[in-house]
Amino acid sequence: MKTEVYVALSADLLHEGHINILKRASKLGKVTVGLLTDKAIAETKSLPILNFNQRKVIIRNIKLVDRIVPQETSSYVKNLKKLKPKFVVHGDDWKTGVFKWRREEVIKVLKQWSGKLVEFPYTKEISSSSIKEKINNKASKFNRISLLKRLVEAKSIVRVLETHSPLAGALAESISINKNGKINEYDAFWSSSLTESLIRCKPDNQSVSLETRVNGLTDLLSSTSKPILFDADNGGNIEHLNYLIPSLERQGVSAIVIEDKIGMKKNSLYQNQKGSKQDTISTFSNKIKTISKIRKSKDFLIISRIESLILGKGINDALKRAIAYSKNGSDLILIHSKDKNPKQIFEFSKKFKKSKFFIPLVAVPSTYSKTFEKDLIKNNFSVVIYANHMLRTSYLAMKKTAESILRSKRSFEAESNMTSIKDILQVKPD
């Protein structure tokens, strides 16, 4: 019987380095590839370009590989304990850096049956990440729409950040935080009707038309490769959807968010909602059905925003609407609240989860900002939208700088609050 050899691969973009590892592994025995699932990859880095089944077909056709098993977490432990391989083969690039902990974990587990970690020099100047970056830069328009749906399926929570300008989008995409070997980054961006109005110094009452906002998406989409969620307020009249939906799909937008309030818009976070009206369940459901028929791809997601809690109608009304909207074609439900704690939305999620019509939930924690993402996950939320934070931050920074220059009668004192010209030019280098 041939010696069992284990190689873990993402195999999103196969290159010479992967083949070199497999060649060396095959000389040691029978090669089992632990192919990381989309969810496992998403634990530590961005979602792969190719899904699990696509990657599996590629690996299956490599003669050096004897069999494939799914590796469902970034940790090797579960598969290693099940297979008890004599050897685990890996490049030597994980001896230092963020994945050092994973290497130490593998060595510890292998000792239980006298297994051995075999490391070979990492193939220099070849990187899946750099190849992927080049592909994303060229092909983002083609894969962007479907990416959001895949993210919701693969990640415990999809993190969405408001981007009120192309610069904000490019900056947000460039930021990542490495914490305990896991890369935390923003998965998608939010095109907000509130921020789109405010950057034009107009009130948040639909004074900026949907057409203007859709046409203005081009530069934002060009500055990023990640999915865009479009805040469409109530979507306008049902007749307007025949223009709006195809326009958003052509631009490469991944989702539309429509709310079930009607009449003159009043921002939901205003304390006084007197006079605000909610659409009937049947009329709004018809709007959802219309969008579902118009969209060319089911990868373009419909997110229905329920305003029942905002308007004081209670959880049962929200639940009734969520079930109806789910039945009629919604892909996700955004349950909105202006409370300072998430108690109400958690109670709603608990009840909705029991329904056979349950679909993924979206949270917008603008008022309950002390709530951690782990608590949202625990309470069945799949998406979190940080809906206005970049604009609010930039406003405060600009105010401080303007005041500082007036106070000091020069700009030197304000420079401590500014990034350098060099750094800001690097957001999108030539």
Mind explaining what this structure looks like?
About 40% of the residues lie in helices and about 20% in strands. The protein is globular, with a radius of gyration of 25 Å. α11 links the parallel β10 (about 230) and β11 (about 255-260). The protein is built from 17 helices and 17 strands. The model has no long low-confidence stretch (mean pLDDT about 90). The chain folds into three domains: about 5-125, Rossmann fold (3-Layer(aba) Sandwich); about 140-385, Phosphoenolpyruvate-binding domains (TIM Barrel, Alpha-Beta Barrel); about 395-425, no CATH class. α13 packs across α14 (about 345-355). The protein has an eight-stranded parallel β-barrel, surrounded by six helices. It has a five-stranded parallel beta sheet with strand order 3-2-1-4-5, with helices on both faces. Strands 7-8 form a two-stranded antiparallel sheet. The longest helix has 27 residues, at about 130-155. The chain has about 425 residues and is an alpha/beta fold.
